[in-house]
User: What shape does this take?
Amino acid sequence: MIYGIFIGHGDFPYATVNAVFRIIGEQNNYFCLGDFQEDNTALYKRINKIISDNFAEHYFIFVDFFGSSYSIPALQISNSNENVTHFFGYNIPIIIDFFMHRNKKSPNELFNKLIEIGKNSIRS
Assistant: This one.
């Protein structure tokens, strides 16, 4: 099982995940973090605690966008833990696919599929 951690500014992670649940139904084995006032060290500790409190084979940390202050702890954790994958920039199609395929694909297969979904969900 792959556990999802959704991080972002304001209510973005909560709103995105809740919108997905309206489409595919309630899910489990995930955590949302948003609208918090912590420095990178505190956020790093909080994410690691979420990981240690929720046993899974692998963890995906979704951060709303690369370069945000939230991306620094996510990178540090994924660089030091081979069971963690970071994913910067997420939307509803990506999260739907994450929940629907996280128990059917390896972490690497899922990551590549989510990248493709993200690219294909952007249209002009």
User: Anything to note?
Assistant: The chain is about 50% helix and 20% strand. Helices lie at 12-24, 40-53, 71-80, 92-101, 107-120. The first strand starts at residue 2 and ends at 8. The chain has one domain: 2-120.
